């Protein structure tokens, strides 16, 4: 006799957390991702829809305080902050730093542009792994993020969002202040007190 009950189906494999995160960025925001091996964080490709200004977290927090009206997304990854700016801004950074007279100063300020990758924070409202990247100012799904990103709008331009020149000037100043603060506190702690 032939069995009339079909054999049990093999359960479909569930997508990994990395696959779900990549899918969220691709479908909700339209951002390109590069998934690594299983267990490795998803990376967002820079230079397509946005570039990134990366600076120390203490300097980045000071930038956010000074530019309270900054509307672009900002993420934190360990001791580094990443500010999303308009695509093409990474190419402008060296020239802007020179023009703002920061070109010869050692700043811990970098830009990720075409061909770069940024670790994708967990989407807003999702639980993330400890030590993973997090959004301080998340992008808004189903809204055009790119028009709100700081961009090079020409000199003397005053818009609702800070243009790239003002943002880079503030970021350079805060990176320099943070560096001096770290250097001064290291020297102050290394020198014994002298009493006369």
| Rg calculated over all Cα atoms | 22 Å
Q: DSSP helix count?
A: 4
N-C termini distance: 106 Å
Largest sheet: 5 strands, antiparallel
Order of helices and strands: HEEEHEEHEEEH
- Number of separate structural domains: 1
Quick check: average pLDDT?
A: 83
Task: Note the overall shape.
Answer: elongated
Main-sheet strand order equals: 6-3-5-4-8
Number of strands: 8
Helix content: 25-40%
Low-pLDDT windows of residues: none
Write the layout of secondary structure elements.
Layout lengths: L16 H13 L3 E2 L8 E3 L4 E7 H10 L7 E4 L2 E7 L2 H11 L10 E3 L4 E3 L14 E4 L26 H27 L6
Helix pairs in contact: 2-4, 3-4
Structure description:
The protein has 196 residues and is α+β, with helices and mostly antiparallel strands. The chain has one domain. 31% of the residues lie in helices and 17% in strands. The protein is built from 4 helices and 8 strands; from the N terminus they run αβββαββαβββα. It has helices at residues 17-29, 57-66, 89-99, 164-190, and strands at residues 33-34, 43-45, 50-56, 74-77, 80-86, 110-112, 117-119, 134-137. The strands form 2 sheets. Strands 6-3-5-4-8 form a 5-stranded antiparallel β-sheet. β1 and β2 (43-45) form a beta hairpin. α2 (57-66) crosses α4 and α3 packs across α4 (164-190). It is elongated, with a radius of gyration of 22 Å. The mean pLDDT is 83.
């Amino acid at each position: 006799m032939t069995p009339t009950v079909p054999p049990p189906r093999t359960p479909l494999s569930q997508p990994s957390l990395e696959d779900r995160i990549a899918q969220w960025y691709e479908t909700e925001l339209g951002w390109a991702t590069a998934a690594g091996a299983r267990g490795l964080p998803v990376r967002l490709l820079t230079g397509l829809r946005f570039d990134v200004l990366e600076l120390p977290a203490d300097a980045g927090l000071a930038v956010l305080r000074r530019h309270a009206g900054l509307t672009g997304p900002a993420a934190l990854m360990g001791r580094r902050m990443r500010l999303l700016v308009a695509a093409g801004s990474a190419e402008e950074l060296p020239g802007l730093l020179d023009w703002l007279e920061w070109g010869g100063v050692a700043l811990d300020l970098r830009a990720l542009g075409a061909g770069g990758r940024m670790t994708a924070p967990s989407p807003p409202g999702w639980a993330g792994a400890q030590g993973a990247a997090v959004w301080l100012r998340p992008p808004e799904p189903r809204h055009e993020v790119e028009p709100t990103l700081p961009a090079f709008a020409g000199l003397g331009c005053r818009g609702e969002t800070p243009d790239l020149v003002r943002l880079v000037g503030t970021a350079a100043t805060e990176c320099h202040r943070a560096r001096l603060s770290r250097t001064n506190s290291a020297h102050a702690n290394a020198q014994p007190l002298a009493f006369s």
